[in-house]
## 1
Amino acid sequence: MRTPIIAGNWKMFKTVAEATALVREMRHDLEGIGGVEKVLCPPFTALAAVAELLRPSQIKLGAQDMHWEERGAFTGEVSPVMLQELCQYVIIGHSERRQYFGETDETVNRKVKSALAHALLPIVCVGENLAQNEARETEAFVGSQVRAALSGLTAAQVTSLVFAYEPIWAIGTGKAATGAGANAVIGLTIRGALADLYGEAAAQAVRIQYGGSVTPENIVEFMAQPEIDGALVGGASLVAAKFVPIVRQATVAKAKR
């Protein structure tokens, strides 16, 4: 059985002081919830401080992005070598990186390969926009993103990473996909592409999250679905009173399946 994984993407929120305060507020409660992997992804500026607070802890730390090179004249970038002493996970290819910062399928692939080479586990984001969804292009578009992200990887490498299906039209809009709808895309399109590339056993080993306006009120609907292994949580992860219940309810819903 795939272990559920709930990751909180704090995006460009929280100063170092605010980040450490939030971790202190919810660490005890999160550590008391078993059966689910918990990942916090604060901004780069807070990674070191949060990492210190989480030692020792079962709560994992993730970065929100990375460059694929180990070092060089890349002003403003952060390398996998800089992250590996702090983090276990790194988000790659988030729709906001693709939309606002020129992330492409090629750069996503380079980052995935580099992360794995430096013992960082990628959370690879894929998803379609509203126009593509309404034009019934979800399967073709998301499937192509999956294949491009994994180009050149082996089955052994692929089974260690995490995918996050984040329909762009549901991110920060308050309009979440339905559990059944997300389950169909994750099972048929994402896991289907994985099976085509690496076989059914590898496809069944990969954990796939749903991301897009996840709340304490709708997490059970998503986690009750057989193909959904967790959530990439945005705004709700910035509030302990919302994120902790999401993690707790995710565990309960998964156990009932």
## 2
Amino acid sequence: MKKGITIKNMTKIFVTNKNTQVKAVDNVNLDIKPGDFVTLLGPSGCGKTTILRMVAGFETLTEGEILIGKENVASLTPDKRDTALVFQNYALFPHMNVYDNIAYGLKLQKLPKSEIDQRVQKILNLMKMENFADRVPSQMSGGQQQRVSLARALVMEPGVLLFDEPLSNLDAKLRIHMRDEIRKIQREVGITSLYVTHDQSEAMGLSDKVVIMKDGIIQQVGSPREIYQKPANAFVAGFIGKANVIKGEIQNQNGENCQVKIDNKVYKATSDKTFEKGQKIEMIVRPESVVIEREDFKATVTKSMFMGEYHEYEVEWKGQTILISQSNPFGKTIYGVGDEMFIGFDETSIHIL
């Protein structure tokens, strides 16, 4: 049965060897709907893994509640919670074959052999691993082992599935493949999932909702598109992809729609905040939203890199470095270091921080 996760006022304080206190998680509140895939994303030490471990039961809360479905599980041991964890290092038994690794948790529950066999075969079919049942972990690639680890978690039919950076040990190409596989399987099963990563592309490609964290505090919760297009602050803007922060001032505002002055040019922009005319503001403009050869501003190229599917520039404008990403550069003018170019900003993509 699908179950949601509700985290209320979660706080975790660690005491160091020098008897000082470190607040790893600071009053976190989060609602995850049944069947949603939610990713905790942030730099190392931001508290995301600590939150996952508290949901799993491997860390105790200093304050707060964790509800899985309607049950407060904060005081329960891991085996009493309706969760399963997919580990970073797979955590497979090296002496057991794939079938026995997957069946291990069911055997601990002392289920009938016929039910164990039925559930394991069902998961093997789902994972497209029917021909791997007799292999041991040493006979499989990292990606195959991670699929077994996922199968072992799913076969327990938990209400909530937890992922602790499961793709970090794989090479770049395999990570993309496994990311797609995890999302496909999660949608087929419909299980509520909480995923931890520091990889922005994983979070964007997998999630219904992304939770951006810094210093134990949630900075923003939203869909990948909301987080990317309308970041709540400069930290979020810079952590998800690349970003230009442009200064300007408010000309007028009508709801979310604003007119802003950048240098001597007036642009349209969006914001979920309220401003006064003439108020100084900062705006986010993504590199792909900087328009080359729009004669609004003149800039000087300081970096020019051909990246295949796009061309990357850094230009100096008004003493500021502006990042530009020009897609499909074939047949377009390529500017070199020292060249002057005209630039402007795509009005549909300017967001006020």
